[in-house]
Amino acid sequence: MLTMCAGCRAFTDIAIAATMCYMLYQRGLLLSTEPNPLMRALLTYTLTTGLLTSIFTTVYLIVYLAEPLSLIWIGTYFLYGKIYIISMLANLNGRKTLRTLANRDVDLESFVVPD
Fold first, then answer.
1. Which ranges of the chain does DSSP label H, i.e. alpha helix?
2. CA distance 80 to 73
3. Is the dihedral of CA 93, 99, 104, 106 positive or negative?
4. Residue ranges of the domains in the chain?
5. What is the per-residue pLDDT across 21-45, written as a single tens digit (0 to 9) for each?
6. Helical axes 37-66 vs 95-105, angle rounded to 10°
7. Contact at 8 Å (CB) between 80 and 56?
8. How far apart are the first and last CA of the chain?
9. Rounded distance, CA 84 to CA 76, Å?
10. Over the Cα atoms of the chain, what is R_g?
């Protein structure tokens, strides 16, 4: 049961990070041909936080499968929780930077609807 939960957690972390990066990359390409700093920042935040949590989930799963009776996997489980909280706090703290980039990128004249 523990192996299945850890495997599902690792899979969903990787799937969510990959899907978000793909969607942000496609949206960034559709908006303009120039490099967009906002899209680059969003891709970086998504990739680093999603990749970090999925790596620790995978490490936790490997340690549990290698040594299930030694209880070392409990330490990696506690580290995973702390890494997950740190990545969430990094996302929350990055909102100001992303908001500044978004306000700089938004050009209200480009949103005028033609008659």
1. 2-31, 37-66, 72-93, 95-105
2. 10
3. positive
4. 2-105
5. 788 777 766 565 666 677 777 777 7
6. 150
7. yes
8. 61
9. 12
10. 19
